[in-house]
Amino acid sequence: MRLSHPSAPFQGIPAEDVFFAANDQFVQLGTGYIILTIQEELYPERPLQLYIDIQAQVTARNLLLGAVLGRAEQMRAMYPHLKGRIYTEIAPTQFDLVTFYQQNGFSGADAREEHQFPLPQGSSQAPMGCEFASVPLQSAQDQTAFIARLNRYRLSPISHDFLTLQMQQPYFMALGFYRGGHPIAEIMMTGASSDKAALVMLYVQKDMRRRGVGRSLLTAASDLLRQRGVSSAVTQAFALNQAQAGMLRSLGATRRRIINMLPFLDLN
Question: Which residue among 206, 247, 250, 267 is the one 20 to 30 A from 117 at the CA level?
Fold first, then answer.
């Protein structure tokens, strides 16, 4: 079998981070690539996140995995003092891929999960010196800035098309606590009907965490949704993200399903 790089960026990924596998007759057997991100907000203990994706016939998987792991070592060498992980994301029903990654030493402990929770009630007072307001989204520049703030706290980025679609939903809201015009915390919720409301994103600036700010903002948004007949919502979270798990426990959330598995290798 043979490995090669594309001659130009592949789906926006630099050519050197993409590998094609082919047999000796130059018939393509699959593709693998790697994407590096620094997630200091989402995973402060392991900010170096190296996402790999392998789409290939069984005979080419090991070759492509070796290639992307080799590239991962080169990328990791650029950040020698950062802990991190190499991970991928696959459907839980892809049993052959689950087995493939486990046989190659990947842990299966992390997953992207969907949880349902009752909308919280209680005090929703803004932090001292802050105001509670809607996120400004009137202009394309406002929308781009909001997306950039949200994506600092996400593994899978929100696109402008996604935001535009959600802004058309009847239960969409984007709210925040602001101090001097600067966001301290922001939330985005949406839904097409009262029984399908969803918490898309909630973040709190690092220096304001562990003060109940996130819970207070969620409660404020929930009060507005409850006035419109909403009583519960769903959200997605990662099983190994302690902050997300703690928030879900405090809300009395129940796991509805595993959306995707995230096999991973830790980098220490």
Answer: 206
CB 63 within 8 A of CB 21: yes
pLDDT tens sequence across 6-39: 999 999 999 999 999 999 888 999 999 999 999 9
Q: Which pTM was predicted?
A: 0.88
Using the 3D structure, point to which of 62, 87, 112 is the last residue of a domain. 87
Q: What is the CATH number of the domain that holds 47?
A: 3.40.630
Q: In whole angstroms, what is the distance from residue 232 CA to residue 143 CA?
A: 27
Q: For the stretch 256-266, what's the b/e string if a residue is b when 16 or more beta carbons lie within 10 angstroms of its beta carbon? A: eeeebbbbbbe
Q: Answer yes or no: is 186 within a domain.
A: yes
Q: Where would I find the H helices in 16-94?
A: 58-77
The DSSP call for residue 9 is -
One domain, residues 124 and 226: yes
Q: How far is CA 243 from CA 21, 69, 204, 206, in A?
A: 40, 29, 11, 12
Query: Helix, strand, coil proportions of the chain in percent (round to 5)?
Result: 30, 35, 35
**Rounded to the nearest 5°, which phi and psi values hold at 120?**
-70, 155
Token readout for 164 is 């535009």
Residues 69 and 129 placed together within one structural domain of the fold: no
Residue 110 has, within 13 A of its CA and on its CB side, a CA count of: 21
